[in-house]
Structures are given as C-alpha cells and as structure tokens.
Predict the 3D structure of the following.
Amino acid sequence: MPDKQIVCEKAREGMRTRIVPDGTMRGVNLLPYDGQVFFIEDNNVEFDWPLITRTLIETVPWQVEVARIFGRELSLPRKTAWFGDVTYAYSGILHPPAPLPPMVERLRARAETLSGTRFNSVLLNLYRDGHDSVGWHSDNEPGLGNCPTIASLSLGGGRRFQLRHRKTKHTISIGLKTGQWLIMAGQTQHFWVHQVPKTAFPVPPRVNLTFRHMMPVC
C-alpha cells in the first residue's frame, strides 16, 4: 500500500459518473482500500449552483458554535446550521430538530438520487474565507450507525479536502469546487479521517452540506 500523498486534481479529469445496477449514479472511488468515497461532478442543468449558494449564505440561520474539546471551550472556525428530524449532538454542541428549508429539501432529494440512500438530516458549514476550516475528524457519532453513507455537497469557493488513513497515514488531497459531491460510504468513517485545512490564498465563501441518516440515541 503506498503511503505517499496523492493529489487528485489531475487524476480526477478521467473520472466519469456511472450508473450502477440499482439505478443510482456514482463516480469513481477515490480510496485505494478500507472504504468508498465516490466523487461526482454534478452538471445537472436544473441546479443553478451560484444562485443556490447565494441563497443559502443569505437565508440560513448560521451560528458560530462553541465546542468542548479536551475539556476546553473553543469557538469553531466556521459557521454551522443543522436541519433534521432528530437531535444532533457532538463535542458538547446540541442541535435540536428543525425542518429543512425548501431549497435544502430539494438538495436532499438530489443527494438521495445520487447515493441511493435515504437521509433525514443535514449539517451545513459556512467557510467565510481561507481562515475558516475543520480539523481532522471522522463522522462516527453513535446516531449515524455502524457504516454510514454521507453525501457531501460543495458550493461556492474551491477548497482543498483531505482524507488520511488512521493506520497507514496514506493521505489523499482533492480540490473541491462548486456543484461537486463526495459520497462517503462503507467503512470510510472507521478507517479514514478528513479535514478542510486553512489556506493563505484568497477564496470566496464556501458552503458545504453533509446529508446523513441519523437515528435517535437514548
């Protein structure tokens, strides 16, 4: 297994979305082992991505959350919002149930078509500039179940997204732009962590939506 960093921007040019037997559309798997992360370039003309991005930035009730990390309270370096049928809790942050806005509901339907998975919630992140980021983590909260499928949509400014294997430290880096999806599935959250690092380059605001199916946790 190679342990060097892989930069996927050029390799991505050869990727093509394909139809799998159950009728859903998936891209080529970016991971060499221990999981599946499918990249999809969404060119559906029914979606005006610049308009959708502006609308979400202007209308979503964004908040700067305060997380408890290693016993310390820290403001997250990005803005967030949560919509879904169940409560979502992580790092001392509690998001109560909230109905999906119509535009987010439409994007959920698109996520379900692309992934072949039903979703009942979504976490939105707003990266205001290159100083906003999210550190290494995996989406492994108990409410997501054992091997969750998560559909992640990037909108707005392009940012670097990285995945790193927990044991081998194999790292994959891909530049994500507006209208591009990552469908993370299988054992990805067990074996890989991911991040959006800071950048010194000037970048427009980026909105990221991660659709997931959450189960109530007692």
Observations:
- Residues 48 and 69 are 38 Å apart (CA to CA).
